User: Fold this.
Amino acid sequence: MARIIGGVTSSHIPAIANAMTQGLEQEPYWKRFFDGYEPVKQWLAEVEPDVAIVVYNDHGLNFFLNQIPTFAIGCADRYENADEGWGLKTLASFDGDAEFSWHIAESLVNHNFDMTMCQEVLVDHGFITPMALMWRHLPKWPVKAIPLVVNTVQHPLPTAKRCYQLGQALGKAIESYPEDLKVVIFGTGGMSHQLQGERAGIINVDFDLQCIEKFIDDPEWLTHLSNDEIMQQAGTEGIETIMWLVMRGALPAKAKLIHKHYHVPISNTGAGVVVLENTQEQ
Amino acid sequence: MAWKKHEYDDIPGTYVFDGRRSHQGYALNKMAFSFNNEENREEFGRDKAAYCSKYGLTDAQTAAVLAADFLSLLRQGGNIYYLAKMTTYYGLSIQDAGASFQGISTNEFKTKLVEAGEGFEEKLQKLGGYWGG
Assistant:
């Protein structure tokens, strides 16, 4: 049976992708941020996942505003990255696992999550930045990847609670797949930041740290936050942190903390990393 | 008929991208979406006004595009992620745009970000268990 071995949260901002392309990891501005990913890479090397499910939002590469699904899942054997007009280097394509994706999609729909199923997805910086953060040191991607796309761009957005519940259903979907696969889930985006308007540039360290602590030990607490409240506290783009809850919902309420890391500012954001391991017997 | 009011409308200096703004900015964002393609960026560069007209932007939106006035474009329904495709075209980063929204320099904007995070390492130490804490 497929098994969730754990989850990782990560920022996915394009400034990080650019810093990696330019080899700036040891520059003073970036060093502490990137060094904090070494234990994540080490954990991934030890647990050796077969599949990574990457929860992220599209920023106008694959989806335009003519059609915005609330929740979408890639159901293909390959995913390409492409020019998104942001000046980022295009990365090598990613192998998918169509059979596993379709199983997940069917299970989610049967559990009342009406997914949009996509047989072509151009994956943008929201997807490629975390993949590169984890595995750019390897000659090729060591996992098959499945994009799970959440609308955090055009309101109304799903609630934090709904994202958590999607994660719970995702957990059931994964663990009902008959093939022996080790699965890791990446919850990406956040933390506090606002890119737009005169309020651009807000960072809320206290709120970010409260979210990290609750995320680890009391994720239900986060599901009571409204999107209005999160935007008040963490900025309009800080709302992305609701995607972490998809990852958290897929793991048991009690999961083993492997690593937590926070750095600020990374470009306009507070950047949080949490690694949780699933220690529950299947 | 009227657009529904939302709690988030009262957050100052903030233009939450909802149905009302997406409706208002549809043509503008569609033009920015076309910037995913290099040939389209080049076509825009050859005659910006003609390119805006091709996408059906209003006169006010066109004027703001030509002036690279991103705050005005936000107010006219531009989405920040789509506008970022345009700022990149103009050689501006998202931090340059953020600074322009506040009428300050990019260095001042970056300094504000650093100041907003000041003391975070002490907070990590107090909570305990953080990498490098």
Notes: The CA atoms of residues 230 and 239 of chain A lie 6 Å apart. Chain A has one domain: 3-277.
